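Hi U.,

Before I forget, here's the chain from the pilot set. I'm dumping it here mostly so it's searchable later in email.
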Amino acid sequence: MKWSAQRRKDDEYFDAISEHLISTSLGKSNDPPTQEERKKRQRRIILARRNEDGELEPIPPTDSLWYHLYASCPQTNDSRWNKKFRRRFRVEEAREDNWFPRWSDGKKDAVGKPSSPLELLILGALRYLGRGLTFDDIEEATAISEDVHRSFFHQFILKGSTVLFEFDKYVLTPQTAEQAKQHMREFEMAGMPGTPASSDATHVVHELCPWKLRRLHKGHKSKHGTRTYNMTVNHRRRILGTTTSHPGSWNDKTLVLYDTFIRGIKRGEILDDNEFELYEKDADGNTIRVRYKGAWIIVDNGYLSWSTTVPPFTNTNWRDEVRWSEWVESMRKDVECTFGILKGRWRILKTGVRLHSIESVDMIWATCCALHNMLLEVDGLDTPWDGMKIPSSEWDGELGNLDSSDLPLAMRRIFSPAEIRAYDTSSTGSRLRPRFQRQQDESDDETMSNVGDNEDGDPETREVRHLSLAYFRSKLVEHFNIMWRRGEVVWPSRRGKAPAVYCD
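Structure:
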């Protein structure tokens, strides 16, 4: 009891001294603060002594370490400094003035007190997202009260989830075939036309989840209460859409019902004008092209059995289905990699959100998704992955009069890894593929000459959403293996186009 009374007395003394120092710095009266002034006072300054016997003095944010390092005199010409800035705040320093242009950096607040530097507030919000720190940690580095940082952070994620996520260009869900065309290029190269993306769900720990709702929010993947999101990304790891959060105990079958993008494809409201063709064998053994309408998404086997959400096979011994499933699983790793990038770059998604409201958790998630897409554009990783030819090593040719076949395999893998690597992990075909294009034999020439439209056999276009999953998936497998035997399947690579593969 005595300790509480002494603590209260010390707090009142601290408040009185702080208000007195603020009034002095603003040129107001030097009279001691009254009792009414003490109650109105908000803690917005940081006090410290310069020496052991000195008096308490306010430390303005302009004297903080962050202000001198990143705001007043940034070392933008130093590459090492730029790398550290990117590692500490996850963004490029050059983008600092363009993050939120609708904010104004006022010189004074409503009561005439100097406002906190906007640069430090933005950097504090990015550090909170990027490394999962507390506002008290940021107060030490910026000399701005943790209450101010907390209030600004809510405004930061509010604008991040609206200005960047909804009304700007960073998270744009394709609605038409023209918009989705740029996302389908890599999947068409891999023998999977008609799909723009892959989808899966992830969990974000909500540390301050209400106790009455903890049972609903605890799933089999975590001992803590979590919120789960279903996210859709293209092959370049660009986020195309995501749901709002739902309780962590919900599975993928329930989440997909609340995904507006996937549900819109199923209902024919989104990408209904998209058309693509699949190879098939007719009754005479000739290869024909069949036209399909709509789109489909690559998922795992936890989703509903829709023809618009296609998973790989789990139990099969057929060689063609095994190979197709291996490639689908490899292409589906895009969304898993995106989860790892998001939670590695924005650690608050990995360590847990320490805010009470679910709306704040959703705004943090949307802000991180928007910043992720923004950084893809900054780093130049959002361009189509149809790449240029990777130059081979100088040793593969005239130097030393050596042919590529004369070099040891280990040397060829070092000099030209993308050209010598085999991407077939199904163990059903050759492990090492030749770098030169295979010569077509007589049977292939005959098949190629018989490729045509299906005007006589099946004149109408098939709508994907009206087909069963088993039927449509069998057609995807047939199309993929026809392309595989022709050597037309290419693994999309960011650094360049991988060589075509062929299976005897």
